[in-house]
Amino acid sequence: MSQLNKLSTLALTLLITGAIDSIRNLPATALFGTTLIFFFIFSAIVFLIPTALVSAELAANIDEGGIYQWARLAFGERIGFLAVWLQWINNIIWFPTILSFIAGTAAYLIDPALAENKVYLVSVILVTFWGLTLINFKGIRLSAKFTSFCAIGGLIVPTIAIILLLGTWLWIGKPLQIHLTPSNMIPHWGHVDNWIALTAIMMGFAGMELATVHVNDVRNPQKTFPRALAISTVVILVTMILGSLAIAFVLPYDRINLVNGTIQTFAYFLHAYHLSWLTPILTLMLVIGSLGGMVSWIVSPIKGLAQAAHRGFLPPIFKQQNKHGVSQSLLVIQAVLVSLVCAAFLLLPSINGSYWLLSALSTQLYMLMYVLMFFCALRLRKKINYSPNTFVIPGKSLGLWLVCLLGLTGCAITLIVGFIPPKGINIGSNWYYEVIFCSGMIGLIIPVFFFYWYQVRNRMGTPVATIEPVDGLARQNS
Fold it and tell me: Is residue 471 part of a domain?
């Protein structure tokens, strides 16, 4: 690919921001109420900033980007496959949640009551996901253009709009559901609900490493990746705090719907300002923004899984790529599995319950991957001599250890509280929730051992000369 056709800093920033800074996360984080600013800053310190710094260092110094290559070089092929499997399989569980947000938001164009209709939600989820899968058949260039368009029209504009509407609300002295004071902005550490809700923010910050699989599609990656990650971190943190406050200030706690709470807030604002005619326009923008945010999540883990396929963990059909460099077989398998997971909306007695279960399960799997990523950063700094002209985390070994320990602390907290059922959301009995949750964790990790066995059997029958060599040394600057 020529330099002219490669991704610029702006395109990469939009790709990262569009994948992470989703306005769909705002209702869940608004549940924090007066403590949300504290938890956002806390989560940024123990998760968002560490993942951004580690992703930037590894992307700038390792030839082949992505968690599979990092884990493979650090700890061997099996750990590499486990890491990319966790990254991919968590998305299979997560996709129905963002798709339910799209469906719930789109319902406002027809009938808001449809947001509580499970048949409607599942139908929209299936049609939307299969449509986005077909778009990804055309490769990263089209995907990046689609994401940039959606990020501008469906993320940046609505985010600015909700912040301006909030500012106007505060300016004219409208009533507020919460009041920020020094005493109530600091959480009560003994309240378990505060830590449970932390899951929503941590999952909302996940995905910084996704774009690194496209390292060969980026202009001057040693400088472009760190710059794009730094810009994205600031934008994500500021916009998510202000957007969450907008919902928390306006909607009563018991009226915040995890699926369509964002459009609820817009509708509430616009009705108060006698601008209800703008609601369908903003609804359409929110749908567009969410569609764009999904593109990176659909194609990036697939690229990492395709790398593992070339190492013998998957059947040969999954190594095949179309003329756009995309593994269509893996994309189709992914779409089929997402379609099956949609049945989760029929397992729990409420839409909010299903949404929370899938989000929490997805978060647990993803946090396990991040644990591996932080250990990879520590291992690779010792194992590979990085070029002095590339980005590394400041502070030498002490700086790297501090960043990784902060990240591991954030992961550990999230993993612990993820098993605790939330209050105020209809999930059935606690026993029912725990059985489904733990069964899901076990059932989604067990296939890894089958693929380990498959690779061993495959290699036992393969001549040594045909086994691919281990690649991926430190990037050398030209």
Answer: no
